[in-house]
Amino acid sequence: MTAPVLEATDVVKVLGSGAGEVHALKGVSLSLAPGELMLLMGPSGSGKTTLLSVLGCILTPTAGTVRVGGHSTAGASPEDLAKLRRDHVGFVFQSYHLFPTLTALDNVRLALDVRGEPAASAIAKAKGALATVGLAHKVRAYPRELSGGEQQRVAIARAIVGNARVILADEPTAALDGENGHAIMELLTRIAKDPSRSVLVVTHDPRTVPFADRIVHIEDGRIVGETRPATERAAEERSKEAIAQDERARAERGKIEPAAEEHISTELASADPIAEAPAEDVHPADERPAEVIPVVPVNTRRKRKQMQR
Predict the structure, then answer these.
(1) What does pTM read for this prediction?
(2) Is residue 117 situated within a structural domain?
(3) Is 128 exposed, middle or buried, given 0-12, 13-18 or 19+ CB atoms closer than 10 A?
(4) Residue 259 belongs to a domain
(5) Does residue 287 sit in helix, strand or coil?
(6) Of 114-118, 258-262, 303-307, where does the model show the most confidence?
(7) pLDDT tens digits, one per residue of 35-66
(8) How many folded domains does the chain comprise?
(9) Residue 39 sits in which domain range?
């Protein structure tokens, strides 16, 4: 079985202390498989953003364990957590978090600069990431020159440029209209198809549901259930196909049966009932053969008259 890209086990997170203490997460366990797009859904205050921060190594759990790319966060120092984030996690935020004074290229390149990537290599990779999200023609554009959807694409390019294994997206469609939101989810779905990556999306947006492989529901700091729309859709498609095949088979039988009946009717209509009837039924009463009267030759009749004389 393939190891999860991201895994949390019995995670507890307590925020604040004393009278203001809040148990934001209460024993949360979940895993994210390679090539999977998961939605984390729940009402406001359910613990979604806190869980995202713990999974992204921004916050450390009060109890429980988190593994990112096979590496445990248990006992990790702030520097170790920062390295895990740089090497394995890419973030996409609702408000984009782009630097207004940097071009799209430089905003994406920044994620590589902090890792010490050589300039030439960083520029090439940043251009490649922008091309992946459909913005190869916008490398020199500043955020103010981009639409909301384009800014979010830049943010996604920044998240994937370092080959992060886990993409964590916090409400990526919330600030976008329907068309741009749909385009962003299509892009994230395409990224999730990479077997070396996974995408976790925290969202309230019901428009994102059709894109999910799995939906995890969280309430009051606890996982309360999950659904697998992709599996359900596949089962539904198989059922529809089976029904369609059955209907096609019935239609084919329907074509054959009338044709067979017509053939039989044609044969019956062309048959000779007299020829096929029994011999005794051939001659009706009014069609009996005429009585045969013997014919006597003329010479024979003359001889008989002479003898009588």
Answers:
(1) 0.72
(2) yes
(3) middle
(4) no
(5) helix
(6) 114-118
(7) 999 999 999 889 999 999 999 999 999 999 99
(8) 1
(9) 6-237
